[in-house]
Amino acid sequence: MREVLVIVKTYPEISKKHRETVCTAGILKDTRKLIRLYPIRYRYLNGEQKFSKYQWIIADIEKAATDDRPESYTVTPDSLQLSHKIGTKDQWNERCRWILNNDNMFDSVEVLKDHQKRFNTSLGIVKPKEITNVKIEAKTEDELEGSIKKRDLVYQQLDLFEDNDNNLEIIPYRFFLEFICDNKNCEGHKYSILDWEIAQLYRKIANRKDWITQIKDKIQGEIFSPKRETFLFLGNMARRHHIFCILGFFYPPKNRQLSLF
Question: Which of 14, 56, 83, 156 is the most exposed place for a label (fewest CB within 10 A)?
Answer without folding.
Answer: 156
